[in-house]
């Protein structure tokens, strides 16, 4: 797929190491910046939900074709995997998610979503634009790459487990490490944030139907009240955190759904509750899931009710854990580009990301790119119908992507057991 570039042992490593420092200046050129922003706006106008990103994928492929970057398509329904470099090891990947959310956009601007009920309310349109920007930078410096950069454009991050399907389809085969980023309103523009180890929690979702016996509210003795049973269940679930969980092992259970009854004077036959649970370790997550099932069924039984529970396996994500070596690499590269004062370490957050599947399979690193700027007004958090992106930070994401990959390849030369000129094999 790619034209191999033979490695020259006389190449000055220090000179190559200076190349990524110029990436931000390249990305900030008016022509490049306008192109990146233009891509983001095109995607924003036509949001597509998980595994429906056909037009988004088509746009990505058109841009890769224009740059002369080979790719595989389709991968996991709508995914695209591009390749830049020698076609030989080492392989390092950069990931962007493509899907939108089922939200009606309430931001009035020229490039507002043209699809009713759908919106890029989590910045994935910008993530794609920044990765394409990185692709342009890397293509410009292809002859300096000491290996191969794999561009992973992933579908269905928002609850569809697209990362896992990309892995199952071979998207990161032969890849040694992967980097991913997410825009964040928690940090100022020009600031990046991350930490070694767990950075985002494992998450799961469940729904339970508690069955009783309905009847008139004035005669509760003739009923089996599922609302009372559900209320006891919710209180008991909170005891799992306050009484059974190590205070130093962060966990969360939240009941966010409670449906039952439709009249003031009628006790219903059943009540439906649902929620999410989060933890940072596999053991804690498994234990929490087990106890949730036990508490719901047994507490319902105390109130003479029956309960059926469904755990949503498709939306179950592991914890996102940053490789410690890659975190040091990230701090070094980002510090050289932005200044160490703009590279901050944050406490792990209970949010979840399906990048976790990548970091579970290979060494991975996930970080946040700040975009808050008080001069541009308030930036609502993700999944809000008023969510908007500070487009001034897009060159930073593109340059960081490109620099992280370039320096990784430079710092991790392949180990040959024989003469690579004689025994060359195209990994792609």
UniProtKB/TrEMBL annotation:
The Peptidase M20 dimerisation domain, residue ranges: 206-300
Keywords linked to the UniProt accession: Hydrolase, Manganese, Metal-binding, Signal
Protein's GO biological process: auxin metabolic process
UniProt-listed InterPro entries: Amidohydrolase (IPR017439), Bact_exopeptidase_dim_dom (IPR036264), ILR1-like_Hyd (IPR044757), Peptidase_M20 (IPR002933), Peptidase_M20_dimer (IPR011650)
Protein name: Peptidase M20
The keyword Metal-binding is annotated on this UniProt entry: yes
Keyword Metal-binding tagged: yes
PANTHER family: IAA-AMINO ACID HYDROLASE ILR1-LIKE 1, PEPTIDASE M20 FAMILY MEMBER
Gene3D superfamilies: 3.30.70.360, Zn peptidases
Transmembrane segments: none
Protein residues bound to Mn(2+): 122, 124, 158, 182, 383
SUPFAM superfamilies: Bacterial exopeptidase dimerisation domain, Zn-dependent exopeptidases
Cofactor comment: The Mn(2+) ion enhances activity.
A GO MF label: IAA-Ala conjugate hydrolase activity
Family: Belongs to the peptidase M20 family.
GO cellular component, one term: endoplasmic reticulum
Coiled-coil intervals: none
Cofactor list: Mn(2+)
């Amino acid at each position: 797929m790619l034209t191999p570039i033979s490695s020259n042992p006389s190449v000055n490593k220090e000179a190559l190491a200076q190349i990524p420092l110029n990436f931000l200046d390249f990305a900030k050129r008016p022509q490049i910046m306008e192109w990146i922003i233009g891509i983001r706006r095109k995607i924003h106008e036509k949001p597509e939900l998980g595994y429906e990103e056909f037009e988004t994928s088509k746009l990505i492929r058109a841009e890769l074709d224009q740059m002369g970057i080979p790719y595989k398509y389709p991968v996991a329904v709508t995914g695209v995997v591009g390749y830049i470099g020698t076609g030989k090891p080492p392989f390092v990947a950069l990931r962007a998610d493509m899907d939108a959310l089922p939200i009606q956009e309430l931001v009035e601007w020229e490039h507002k979503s043209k699809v009713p009920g759908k919106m890029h309310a989590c910045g994935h349109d910008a993530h794609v634009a920044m990765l394409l920007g990185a692709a342009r930078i890397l293509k410009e410096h292809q002859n300096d790459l000491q290996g191969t950069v794999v561009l992973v454009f992933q579908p269905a991050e928002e609850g569809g487990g697209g990362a896992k399907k990309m892995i199952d389809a071979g998207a990161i085969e032969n890849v040694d490490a992967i980097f991913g980023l997410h825009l964040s309103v928690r940090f100022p523009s020009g600031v990046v944030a991350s930490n070694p180890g767990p950075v985002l929690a494992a998450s799961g979702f469940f729904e339970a139907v508690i069955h009783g016996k309905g009847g008139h509210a004035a005669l509760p003795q003739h009923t089996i009240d599922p609302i009372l049973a559900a209320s006891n269940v919710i209180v008991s679930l909170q005891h799992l955190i306050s009484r059974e969980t190590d205070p130093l092992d962060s966990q969360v259970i939240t009941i966010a759904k409670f449906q039952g009854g439709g009249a003031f004077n009628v006790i219903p036959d059943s009540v439906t509750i649902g929620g999410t649970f989060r933890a940072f370790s596999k053991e804690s997550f498994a234990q929490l899931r087990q106890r949730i099932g036990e508490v719901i069924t047994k507490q319902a039984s105390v109130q003479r009710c029956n309960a059926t529970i469904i755990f949503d396996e498709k939306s179950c994500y592991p914890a996102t854990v940053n490789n410690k070596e890659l975190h040091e690499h990230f701090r070094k590269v980002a510090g050289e580009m932005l200044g160490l004062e703009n590279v901050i370490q944050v406490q792990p957050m209970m949010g979840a990301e399906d990048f976790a599947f990548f970091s579970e399979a290979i060494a991975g690193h996930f970080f946040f790119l700040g975009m808050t700027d008080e001069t541009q007004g308030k930036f609502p958090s993700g999944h809000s119908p008023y969510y908007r992106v500070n487009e001034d930070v897009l060159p930073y994401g593109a340059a960081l992507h490109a620099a992280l990959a370039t320096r990784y390849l430079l710092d991790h030369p392949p180990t040959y057991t024989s003469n690579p000129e004689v025994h060359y094999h195209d990994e792609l």
